[in-house]
Amino acid sequence: MIEQLFDGLMLALDWQVLLAILLGSIGGIIVGALPGLSSTLGVALLIPFTFGLSAPVAFGLLGGMYCSSIYGGSITAILINTPGTGAAAATVLDGYPMTQKGQAGKALATAIWSSFFGGVFSTAALLVMAPPLSQIALRFGPPETFTVCLFGLTIIASVSTGSMLKGILSGLIGLLIGTVGLDLQIGFGRFTFARFELYNGINLVLALVGFFSIPEALNMVKGRHHVIDADKLKVSDMKLSRAEAKFLFPTWLRSSVIGTLIGIIPGVGTPVACFASYNEAKRFSKRKDQFGTGIIEGVAAPEAANNAVEGGSMIPLLTLGIPGSAQTAIYLGALMIQGINPGPSMFQGANAPITYSIIFGLMIANFVMLGLGLGGIRAFLALIRLKKIVMIPLIITFAVIGSYALNYRLFDVQIMLLLGLAGYFMRKNGIPLAPAVIAIILGPLGEDALLQSNTIFRGNLLMFFTRPICVFFIALTPIAIAVAVNNHRKEKRH
Amino acid sequence: MKQTSTTSQRGIQSDRLLALVLMAFSAIVFLYARDWQMEAGLYPRAIAVIIFALSSFMLIKPKEKKRKTPGSMFKEAIANKETFFVVVLTVVFIMVIEPVGFFVALPVYMVLTQLLLGSRDWKNIALSTVVTTAFIYLVFVVMLSIRIPVAFWLT
Amino acid sequence: MKKLFVLVLVLSLMAFTPALAQDFPARSIETQVGYAAGGASDIIARIVAEYMSKELGQPVVVQNYAGAGGEIAYTGVATAKKDGYTLGYINAPATMSLPLNRKVNYTMDDFEFIGNVIYHENLVVVSPDGPYKTFDDLYKAVSENPGTITVGNSGAYADDHLASLKMQHETGLTFVDTMFQGTAPSLVALMGNHIDSVVCNVADIVQKEKDGQVVVLATMGGERNPLFPNAPTLTELGYDVVMGNYTTLAAPKGTPEEALTILRDALEKACTSDQYMQAAGVEANLPIQFYNAEDIAARYAAANEALVKLWADLALPTP
Asked: Do B150 and C19 count as a contact with CB atoms less than 8 A apart?
């Protein structure tokens, strides 16, 4: 195996591969940063280019895009309170307050180092522990998936800044949005109004773009004459100090584990990972009440987790042929175009070096991302100088094109705008948007899993308690809710 | 920062108004889904019921004290008129993408929106419009060959 | 002055818009695929696109409009502009079964066939860790315990589900049909031993079978599949079950004849070329099977008849 690893590394260190990684990464940062263009879209758009390329080069390109686009979303999240991708939705919580405090440079530095840590951690896990970790993916049948979603929905309670009642309402609205589409058992159209474009449900990307870009852009209209004083930023504010890195290490580790595990579970993805790790970082922090005011852990946790999803999602992909995230679902197509059939055979014989070259490519992409991210901080900061009057139509424009480019449908753009207006209405009334997004992801996943479990158990739902993983999450759920309620009570007393 | 209005004690607290909107919304959802078969219908109806219940709770025990009368809402709407116009412009933009073509609609949208928001900085307007349009064209049309609606008179 | 400025700006930017078309094809052609990127339908579309572009001299692009059992793409093709630049892949039985089940915005008459690219039969697979080593084992288990053995499929009334229903109808067995959003999740559940069996297609499990992750118990083709020499066909075992999936390139009805002829020609040339057969059949391991427009039209007519009969026999829900 060592020779195979070495061969794989050598394949990945070819200049063409490195160039592909660089190009993919640059594209990735741009796609990630632009609100309206999602990282899934970025990976999908590169697929046609992989046709004529060799496997290491093709996956260098894709790896660069995947890796950097997840990081790129944090740039706009931090600087203009608008996440460039769904993965950065939690980064705004502390990222933008840091910018408002004049610490944008530090926030950006935190984001890049955290993303780097998460990406390298999960890619290393992929390299070293792929086969045993892949067994986790298999253990998650429909019953386990349901209980995970149930537990995942409790994140809503903790992510509800402000009134928990409104947070729950947001979650319920998200669940309702998630019901749009054909139901699983009989193909009955719910809320589809006979528009087949809705049969597959409301695309998550449309919800992300609609909820996070449009309300922010519209909000800017009122406050557009207020400019953040960019001259307040000092050079030292653009770095992460050794001491801070040491302080962040436990957060990084915890968030990377969370991200990797979420990546391994098919269907969940980066938006949930970023909120889950933010939640956990807050839970274990000694200064939990400062979360949301602009502290580095609040940026480090989601950023490490979302990049950790990368490596995690590749584990079931390469070992079992099951994608762990939306982006890796596209990877699957790229693999097949290359004539590579994912599965155990990838790690055997002549296939192994190529497989390892793909993994090393992803690893190298993290380093390239680090370089670009660090080197670009000064350039990114210039974004703040952009006049809000220009940003408003700019954000909306990219929201439009990003929604259109998914399926070449103006209908999607209309849905996105509708959601955007709903999101704006919700924001104006103090209803947080993050719970709705979590519910849009976990709702449909959970409902399908429940229906399948019901079928498998032949109606006897007590059988949930015969499965250890299910019991674990079922037990955690009320505990998590109780803790969240308790925390809310404490916050109110302050 | 609580705002208690002494001059307009009438009117509904903004949370109460929100509650009423949500209750109406959930009622409509419930009624729309009332005929759906058990499996498919139970879930959305249950959600609608919970939303209704929570909203009615909010109606009875609202948190904020900001009051909204038709008068104050009207005043807010005037202040919000710019936001409203941006929304209108955006809707029109999306509507005309297909008829007039994306690359006509886009520059017009960018210019008009900035003008509407009060900018007279022509350098900024021109620069942002040209750069954005060129960027989108180069990346999406040239590099990625994505089909973007073209003006109908050109096809 | 400002108005003039805006006007000039707008007009100069209009120069960016692509030019008017003259010959067919004068610009890129879109082929719509009703399934997500990475699936067999998607891969074959991309390979076909590559070889067709060589024949046509214009790029052929694949667009995924996944969901609704393929309906989004089918409707997309049926209602597309009839200029020959928008094509798409339809399937039998999927495209035919949807109108039988629900109200759709197309009929089978809305399509002009260009050519068929894939045919593969449905089959029954189980996990190697399970108790079933042959179809007889499964048969015994299900007949002794009706309504307790689960069989996964890719969605309500999708071709896998229909194949499963037909199989149950002909064998008299009662499985518990478990719906998933696509074949991939159903196979995951099978490999994790959460469900007992799955009905899917050849392309879905070729590699997995090689890797020993699934075992093919029986196929639903006309004859044994050389890839699975030990798996009998249901016909062999005495059951009248032949179920398979066609993937066919089509254009909206009303597309000009000249364009159709060019497209049909290009597809045929592409699909009969050695490089294509190597790339798609050998390297990508896909069950390629080319039928030209006439041939496939006849097959679809026959398949449609059989499906309507099946629907009536099983008393499946109609709109």
From this structure: no
